[in-house]
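Students often ask why we bother encoding 3D structure as a string. The short answer is that it lets us treat folding as translation between two languages. Here is a chain of 143 residues written in the first language.
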Amino acid sequence: MTFKALLLSVAMLSPEQIREDESLLARIMYHEARGEGYSGMIAVGIVIKNRVMSDRFPNTIREVIKQPHQFEPVSRGLLNHKPVEHDAWDMARQAAKDVLQSDSVEMMDGALFFHSTSISPSWDMQQLSHVTDINEHRFYAYK
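And here it is in the second language, the structure alphabet:
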């Protein structure tokens, strides 16, 4: 069963809501990882997907992305800005489709968090284990 089919059946989302979620997922992937290439965008999408599947986070893409203080582009009001890097936007839209069409429910060892390697987050790192680095992003899961 694809993640998209799972959302339709479990979250009871309409096909229109799924299309809206796909667009929102593409926008967050674009704003979080447009300089990280396809693999970086997919990784961000997988974190969101893993959060939807986790009992520690909301159970829809929209709720996960819009959850306060979770994603900088949301906090800064960037999600409604028109993408200016067209190649990166096309890549983000394809990456969002690919994440939603994936038949794997959990990927990247359950990564639920990420940050740019250029910053030191204020998170309680004792609860987290480092999963991987992809380009300029570092990914973590709960221990």
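Translate back mentally: The chain is about 50% helix and 10% strand. Keep this in mind for the problem set.
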